[in-house]
Design a protein that fits this description.
The protein is of the alpha/beta class and 243 residues long. It has seven helices and ten strands. Helix 3 runs parallel beside helix 5 and helix 4 crosses helix 5. It is globular. The structure holds adenosine-5'-diphosphate and magnesium ion. Magnesium ion binds next to helix 1.
């Protein structure tokens, strides 16, 4: 895999300023109400330092996806505060939140989330189309990103013609399309066999280093936790360890 940096415009990514990319304070989220209410998060606080890969572990139902959805602005908390790159999410109008998600966050999901009728290259280009990046600049960046994830030779294949690991690498390239400051990945290796999962996590690790991005990754795969700079553990909606 290429070690070159691929910041917007092909220039090297500037050294990230010190401080925390994500600050989460006393986050609460309850689904439903009354007797059937589920207290998914009961006061969760943590930080994600700039340039680090932070893993969120915890068994199924512990609240990992809820945390990621809130940090990514896909859902709103019932209490607490989220600050992303210095911006308080609660203070944003809907349009600004949408723009922040599109321009500053890259999402990677367990099920890849690729569009089946588009080629790998077209899938990677989608976030840039949404930003109306001119075709030529878009094509150049798609080439760079596909080479970064080692898929230059598969640019014209559709997701159904790629292995699971290759599909997730396309999804990682797509997540990087708009040069996000933060990558949010929810069990990105959950549908992959152990070796492929490790390779995908290795790629995420390498991308965090080479692109200077920050990553928050939920996983319950203990083998992958070793690749994280820091591991947070959730249990029943609370952080139980922060090592
Ligand atoms: P994890 O990702 O760690 O498996 P989740 O954040 O998905 O955990 O879920 C935390 C808790 O919240 C679980 O008890 C789950 O059943 C519940 N939950 C998640 N989403 C919803 C929802 N949309 N409606 C009701 N309950 C939900
Ligand atoms: Mg989950």
């Amino acid at each position: 895999m290429s070690e070159q940096s691929i910041g917007q415009g092909g220039t090297a990514v500037a050294q990230a300023p010190a401080g925390d990319m994500v600050v989460v304070e006393d986050l609460r989220r309850t689904y439903g109400s009354g007797e059937t209410a589920v207290h998914a998060l009961r006061g969760v606080s943590f930080t994600v330092p700039r340039g680090e890969l932070v893993a969120l572990k915890g068994r199924s139902g512990s609240g990992k996806t809820t945390v990621l959805n809130l940090v990514g602005g896909l859902d709103s908390p019932d209490g607490g505060r989220i600050t992303l790159d210095g911006t308080d999410l609660a203070g944003l109008a809907d349009d600004d939140l949408l723009a922040l998600r599109r321009d500053r966050i890259g999402f990677v999901f367990q099920s890849f989330g690729l569009i089946p009728i588009l080629t790998a290259a077209e899938n990677v280009g989608v976030p840039m189309r949404l930003r109306k990046v001119p075709a030529r600049a878009r094509d150049e960046r798609v080439d760079l990103l596909l080479s970064l994830v080692g898929l230059s030779d598969h640019a014209n294949q559709r997701p159904g013609e790629l292995s699971g690991g290759q599909q997730q690498r396309v999804a990682i390239a797509r997540a990087l399309a708009n040069s996000p400051v933060l990558i949010i990945a929810d069990e990105p290796t959950g549908q992959l066999d152990a070796d492929t999962g490790l390779a995908v996590m290795d790629l995420l690790r390498a991308v965090v280093r080479s692109e200077g991005v920050t990553a928050l990754v939920a996983t319950h795969d203990t083998q992958l936790l070793a690749l994280a700079d820091r591991v947070l553990e959730l249990r029943d909606g609370r952080i139980v360890t922060d090592e």
